[in-house]
Amino acid sequence: MLARPNRLTRGAEYKAVVRRGRRCAGAHTVTYVVASDEPRATRFGFIVSKQVGSAVMRNTVRRRLKALCAEAMPTVRPGSDIVIRALPTAASAPYADLRDEVARCLSRRAA
């Protein structure tokens, strides 16, 4: 999955990305991207609220999003901070739809 250097861990980091980031909305997710030229690893964060479903469903959606980001990491500009917010429809979305949506937003905002 995602190694520690590739994760956003603090609430202030999430808040900064959501407030300052460029937004890309889809049917199942909203992606926020802050691109920088710092020589560091790309970092990802995930927001999956209780509106998505039970704890089991939220964790399933989060694991799917993590796998998609790990898959797409080589195409993302180094130094980018990315937060993906799952919408309630993400719980019932097929994996292929989530993959297409995340890849589209990452290529549009973080490539």
What does the model show?
Pfam families: Ribonuclease_P (PF00825). This is Ribonuclease P protein component. This protein has a single domain, classed as Ribosomal Protein S5, domain 2 (2-Layer Sandwich), CATH 3.30.230.10. Helix content is 39%, strand content 20%. The protein has helices at 11-20, 55-72, 95-109; strands at 22-25, 29-34, 43-48, 81-86. The chain has a 4-stranded mixed sheet with strand order 1-2-4-3. The model has no long low-confidence stretch (mean pLDDT 92).
Detail the topology: elements first, then pairings.
Layout: H1 11-20, E1 22-25, E2 29-34, E3 43-48, H2 55-72, E4 81-86, H3 95-109
Parallel strand pairs: 3-4
Antiparallel strand pairs: 1-2, 2-4
Helix pairs in contact: 2-3
The helix content, as a percent range, equals 25-40%
The parts where pLDDT drops under 50 for at least 5 residues are: none
The total strand number stands at: 4
Q: Major sheet, described briefly? A: 4 strands, mixed
**What does the average pLDDT come to?**
92
Provide the β-strand percentage band: 15-25%
User: What is the second-level CATH architecture?
Assistant: 2-Layer Sandwich
Q: What do we call the CATH topology? A: Ribosomal Protein S5, domain 2
Quaternary state of the chains: single chain
For the record, what CATH class applies? Alpha Beta
* Domain count: 1
Q: Walk across the major sheet and give the strand order.
A: 1-2-4-3
Order of helices and strands: HEEEHEH
Q: Please count the helical segments.
A: 3
Terminal CA distance:
21 Å
GO molecular function: 3'-tRNA processing endoribonuclease activity; ribonuclease P activity; tRNA binding
Family: Belongs to the RnpA family.
Keywords: Endonuclease, Hydrolase, Nuclease, RNA-binding, tRNA processing
Subunit structure: Consists of a catalytic RNA component (M1 or rnpB) and a protein subunit.
